[in-house]
Specification:
A hairpin with a 2-residue loop joins strand 11 (about 325-330) and strand 12 (about 330-335). The chain is an alpha/beta fold and about 750 residues long. A ten-stranded mixed β-sheet has the order 2-1-3-4-7-8-12-11-10-9, with helices on both faces. A two-stranded antiparallel ribbon has the order 5-6. It is globular, with a radius of gyration of 26 Å. The protein has 25 helices and 22 strands. Helix 2 packs across helix 7 (about 190-205). The longest helix has 17 residues, at about 540-555. The chain has three domains: about 1-215, Response regulator (Rossmann fold, 3-Layer(aba) Sandwich), CATH 3.40.50.2300; about 225-240 and about 275-335, no CATH class; about 375-645 and about 700-755, tm_1862 like domain (pyruvate-formate lyase- activating enzyme, Alpha-Beta Horseshoe), CATH 3.80.30.20. About 50% of the residues are buried.
Length: about 750
Amino acid sequence: MLAAKSLFTYPHYWAECFGTAPFLPMSREEMTALGWDSCDIIIISGDAYVDHPSFGMAVIGRLLESQGFRVGIIAQPDWHSAEAFKALGRPNLFYAVSAGNMDSMINRYTADLKIRHDDAYTPDNVGGKRPDRAVLVYSQRCRESYNDVPILIGGIEASLRRVAHYDYWSNKVRRSVLMDAKADLLVYGNAERAVVEIAHRVAAGQAMKSIQDVRGTACMVNELPSHWDCKDSTRIDTPGRVDPMHNPYHWEQTNEALNAPCANGENPAPADQAQVVHIRPAAGSKPELILLPAFEKVSKDPVLYAHASRVLHLETNPSNARTLVQKHGDRYLWVNPPPVPLTTEELDDVFELPFQRVPHPAYGNARIPAYEMIRFSVNIMRGCFGGCSFCSITEHEGRVIQSRSEDSILREIEKIRDQTPGFTGTISDLGGPTANMYQLNCVSEEIHQNCRRLSCVFPTICKNLVTDHSPTTRLYRRARELPGIKRVMIASGLRYDLAVRDPEYVKELVTHHVGGYLKIAPEHTETAPLDKMMKPGMGAYDEFKALFDRFSKEADKEQYLIPYFIAAHPGTSDEDMLGLAFWLKKNDFRADQVQTFYPSPMAMATTMYHTAKDPIHRVNYKSAEVVVPKGEKRRRLHKAFLRYHDPDNWPLLREALKNMGKAHLIGYGKKNLVPPRQPANHPSAKPGTANSGAGKRRNRNNPGKGAFLTQHTGLPPRGGIDAGRGAGKSGSGKSHSVKSTRGKGKLGKGKQARRGRR
């Protein structure tokens, strides 16, 4: 079993004598009021500073403060010069740089590469307050400010770009962000354990560049240690070769001393010309590292890129993951294994740090949408073992579920009740990356230590996975019983294929915790794209819907399931989208807002998008090609299938149906998808040719950024994002909601109508 030094057992830094700050200071005036002459660590963040445990930089800041360090925050600095980065003076130890709770490129651009004009993590939802590739820009400005101060980069953007990765916005493979940022060290995933150790080691006088053995970090080295067992990744998962006479993994060395860096014996390179990784193997064993194809190779060879992606994802279990190495030019990117997950006690302590749970007073009355969405919600766990190929949670938080204790969660609910302004008695969510994975883990630690499955629930639910939801059910009941708590809602996405394993949980959920609508994510109806997404078939959806309808009826509540779908996901053909469109029509669903698949860095579906190869399975040069919907017209067509009911899409759909040999699906009958003509009042209708009866029932909602779940109840739409849960899903493209025409007008009064506004 993995063991690690407890987060809260380090000797405190001497500056603990200054005590706890009401808010981490953002100005010199605040520092003076606290009696500080300088900061030990300065956090640079692309988000506004909200002192709340759903915001990563607040968590890291408060955790470092608990270790005795003086921590300041420079939030959303003006990056056009270095002046804003000097606002708190020179940090004594290091800068900690993060783009924020989202990758800055996903935050700034839509899936169609259009600029967004809003930003939920910025006061008053103003867009453009952070630069593109924020980690790179912020790091450069920090270096310009004080060039001798070490720079530690982390957060979503750094985490998902830690190795050579396909970048959707430039349409090319980019180097590790660590190299481009010229930072000293990178932390990935949930970084509490790594950041605390790094801070104490730097405070003790160790140079950050020499810290190369901390789990959950990546660094650059000039040579590889001779005492490690170096395995070429082809020995792990053979991709095949372009030419039998040519080894695709051959590297052209620029230094003859590095020709055989993994050989036994002494490396002849002089010590002053190389950084050597100083990690001692366990007694009686030889540590292993896996040599991935070099950046220069994966940037030119799609098969090698897909192979490297697959190997990386196979090395994500903290219990058995090995060190990964990837050559970049004449240096090596060294990626240590993932961090040891926090224990329940450690996670409790982190979430119970002295957060104010509100934005910094400097923002006055400005509204920060991301905070508004989560201020009455509680994060009960971390991680997700679903492994959906389009989602970034696995790459960031990992597959191991880290759960808080019930008592800690209840104490946070009481803090919300007693301290959060505007609380009226409703907890908006008890959840996390997934609502119903609380305390679900492997039945055996020994089995888990040897497991390399990409998902615990695909292609089937693992027989060794605990699926008993009784801890979650008990938590819900205890939360409802707290004085002053009127309702406890569940807003996080639900893994319905797990929920059906425990009907008692479904009954509890449906009876007490659904506010008219419950969002779930089948993502598609057709087998081919579902297999590429690593999602269950529609049989699980149907099973869950039957339970949902049954328990809603028993509770005498009119409630609806709101399914999410993805357009243009790799592996999706036009025929697949046609099948989904007919499923929507058959079930009287209409999509409100549709966004096509968004290729986020490092996700397996992004690998499919870039390479047309499937890294879920072993890849080689003869592997079948994955169907990848690319190009503006093709992606627009797949969106149009999801919104088949919108007359704006009918011309495109009619053309596509004819090209597919499906012209018989154009007509006015129930078995037809679109009518042959535009409605009379439509701008595109030609005089005298339109059918005045077609297309009158048009969607009046205005498509926009983010996900909105509703049914057709006559209630106004309300958009937003879940900052606390969805950070790791920043590139998933999961913003496809549908409404049911069958529910129209049925929730138009009383409490049920108010529930529908969620």
